[in-house]
Amino acid sequence: MKTSKPLKIIIADDDTDDLQYLNFLFKNHKGFEIIGCLTSGKSVLDTIEHSGNVPDVLLVDMHMPIMTGSEVANILLDDSTFSNMAIFIISGVINRTEEERLKGRVHFLEKPTTLVQITDLPEVILEKMKVGNVNWI
Question: What pLDDT, on a 0 to 100 scale, did the predictor assign at position 20?
Fold first, then answer.
């Protein structure tokens, strides 16, 4: 997949510090256009299902109250409307059972712990989507 236009992304994390940093990181990367920074799985579903603005990428935290990232992914994967959306679940600890169950449909990423890993996160996502290094203009 090659593209020269930014990928639309929704980011969801119930930790406001993490969400603010992810917002900063993706907002300052020319490969992405943030269309939502949300604090719950329910707000992800509400935003996607009711706005008609389907993102190219969903980056969702695994462990959130009410609805986990996995539960959000399962709901979206059951609806063919969202079949082109790349879903990334991010977590401090990867649930290998969930990863295996959703293999090939969802990407699991460990939450970055170093500044280099955090800074590289947008490129890691692009690489997994087979977009490659995207440093436009």
Answer: 95
